[in-house]
Amino acid sequence: MSDLLKAKKNIRFEDHLMEELQDAAFAAEYINSAVEENDSEFLVHALNDVAKANGMSKISDESGINRQALYKMLSENGNPSYKSIVKILEALGLELQVRLKKVC
């Protein structure tokens, strides 16, 4: 087995996810999945994952949100405001968008 294959085999899912979430398009889809589920806890969790993957300090600096406040609002018990969510998304190079609901 090649060294590259061994290395890839040992990558944990979480590590792989953190790497993938550094890609803005992948991060947008990940966050959109949470929005589509209409689950605020999942949305906070997704925002937390994306922020961690891209560096909490960087997101803090670019959003203007204190790093400790950022950790708190994106924690399991966090409840970020709309304004904070928009700031976090902007720091990630993302934005909110409204579209027509799909009819089955």
Assign the structural class, choosing from mainly alpha, mainly beta, alpha/beta, alpha+beta, or little secondary structure. Answer: mainly alpha
* C-alpha termini separation: 48 Å
Determine the fraction of residues in helical runs and give it as a percent range: 55-70%
Give the biggest sheet: none
Number of helices: 7
The helix/strand order is HHHHHHH
Low-confidence stretches: none
How many separate domains?
1
What would you say this structure looks like, in words?
It is a single chain. The chain is 65% helix and 0% strand. It has 104 residues and is an all-alpha fold. It has one domain (12-91).
Observed structural traits:
104 residues; mainly alpha; 7 helices
Structure in a nutshell:
The protein has 104 residues and is an all-alpha fold. It has helices at 3-9, 13-20, 24-36, 40-54, 56-63, 67-73, 82-91.
Layout of strands and helices, then pairs:
Layout: H1 3-9, H2 13-20, H3 24-36, H4 40-54, H5 56-63, H6 67-73, H7 82-91
Helix pairs in contact: 2-4, 3-4, 5-7
